[in-house]
Specification:
Length: about 190
Amino acid sequence: MKAGAVLSVLCLVFPACYTTCQEVKVRPGQNATLECRGSSDLMISVVQWRKPDLKPDSYVFFYRKPHSYENYQHESFKGRVDLREPSMKDGDASVILRNVSISDTGTYECEIITSNTRSGERDVKEFKHSINLTVTDADGGDEAAGDKEGGGKVEVRAAVSVSAGLLISIIIVTAIVALINYRRHKSCWISSS
């Protein structure tokens, strides 16, 4: 069994071992859609879009029910970021970053806080998502091309977030347990014969 297959099986068994990471590539002056989606059956209370290299109290976009707050935005994003779906229908907290420039290149993080008040109890859940935005004026053909309205070509890949040491430890422990069980059963088979 190949290592990639083993890793895929482990990620199915332990779903917390991976997160999605989206790659978005656009050219300067275009719009970039930064996708983020929470649960479609829960009410969105808070949406926070951050860029880690900004000050901790600055946001790319900030929403707290019932509206967004531009005064929490970093100066470079004011007037350039809007929700793609203003009603956030079906948990869509994606934003459109307008008129991108090379300085917008970087990692963006979306955090959605939802609540379920239908059951009578307050049930809060968080959804986190990371996006790598690349703004380049290099001629990359169709791959780098976005569009003025739509937001660039999107490539989604699984980013493994489990350390290699943990993965190797799980494999080693499993192999040792299997070997011990084999030896016990083998000695039982030999002595009963």
